Amino acid sequence: MQTRHERFRYRHLDELRDAVRKLDLGLEFDEDVSILGNQVAIDGKLAPNSLAIQPMEGHDGTPEGRPSELTFRRYRRFAEGGAGLIWFEATAITPEGRANPQQLMLNNDTLPSFRKLISETLTAARRAHGPEHRPFTVLQLTHSGRYSRPDPVIAFHDPYLDEETHVAPDQLPISDEELRKLEDRFVEAAKLAQEAGFDGVDIKHCHRYLPSELLSAHTRPGDYGGSFENRTRFLLNIVDKIKARLGDGIIVTTRINAYDAMPYPYGWGAASEEGSRAMCLEDMKKLATLLYEKGVRLLNITAGNPYHNPHVNRPYDLPLKGTELPDEHPLTGVARLIRAARIVQETVPKMVVIGSGYSWLRQFLGNAGAANIRNGWVTMVGVGRCAFAYPDFAADLLDKGAMESRKACITCSRCTEIMRKGKMTGCAVFDREVYGKALKS
To answer: What are phi and psi of 349, to 5 degrees?
Structure first.
């Protein structure tokens, strides 16, 4: 099997199918994408179609954590684009949990600006698509853990990540007492999100930020490490506390790593043999079942770490400057993400599962998503970077039956490069007037 990296070069769907066959990946593509227009019931509420915009970390809020005009612009464009679900970007629950000084942060002082953000987003959706069109909205709540700036917070020492995240050998991990306090901070933030008008809150458990790291805390002592019960305690406690406090007032969900792509015992989703990187989702299946039993009806599945192994969670054509291309065909990465979501969906078939990893497929992402929904491998198709480049991708898929190749994301990593430079968040290629200068400076 050919595993080396190749850029996207497919002009016709049959060319893409042929590449999938040669790589023996088992992906399918439907010509008819009308299934993407199916409404999706989410715990008593309704998303108008099966397309979702994924949460992508922002870098253009105010120092206080309020959305800026660029933030408002981004979500107006997403709303006008017609997706049935808009998953709002990572929003810190504490100042020390911010990944950058312009990351959004939800507290009593910033609450009015979040009310305005959700109101303007929904107004833009109605104006563009009629009074009956209301996208389902989720706010991602986060603590960035070892990626917090300026001071990293760790759940345990990790020989693969400590050096690259500037963690000192003598740094103490966050204590059990501090984690219990953070549980309550997530609950308070969920209450504020409800007051702002969001349909749901995401207790972010992906990409090796603090809650995600706890899932892989095999080497941590105490109540939040070691056993499966302890490693999932933080998430399950927060779910219980939010439901006890807010009842049916807001839907609780999580964007969660099914697989960290890091060796055991330092990675979630790896086979339990020392040093193994093999994907094994038994713990993820068990956790998904527990979440469903606790009343969680929506899961958003991802994998990897955008700082450590970015090709795992966002297969790309061009890497960030200073990094190398992986020894893996991007289609292999796409297939891994689709398989992870499929395993979760088949484990809890009544759960609304959102899949990831579609942007590398460009104008054919809808064809893959339609086949996955038809096969029961996923309920909704989540689109990340491509939404920056092509915010009206959903409208084109639903109204025209296809996306335009000239508008699709080219997975060049420049949106990430801009953010890593401490600038802003957006597409420097297709939204050049706003973001092009940030890339050059």
So the answer is: -60, -20
Rounded Cα distance between 116 and 124, Å, is 12
User: What are the pLDDT digits (tens) for 350-406?
Assistant: 999 999 999 999 999 999 999 999 999 999 999 999 999 999 999 999 999 999 999
Give the pLDDT mean for 48-67: 96
Instruction: Write out the two tokens for 222.
Output: 């105490």
d(CA 364, CA 367): 5
| Domain contains 4 | no
Count how many residues are written for the chain: 441
Count: domains in the chain = 1
Q: Is 7 a member of any domain?
A: no
User: Domain with 368 in it: what CATH number?
Assistant: 3.20.20.70
Give, in order, the Cα–Cα distances in Å from 64 to each of 44, 75, 373. 34, 19, 41
Question: How many angstroms separate the CA atoms of 327 and 340, rounded?
Answer: 20
pTM reported for the whole predicted model: 0.98
Q: Is the peptide bond before 265 cis (omega within 30 degrees of 0)?
A: yes
Task: Find residue 91's DSSP bridge partners.
Answer: 104, 141
For 305, the domain range is 13-440
Residue 321 has pLDDT above 60, yes or no: yes
Residues with Cβ within 8 Å of residue 427, at least 6 apart in sequence: 385, 388, 389, 409, 414, 415, 435
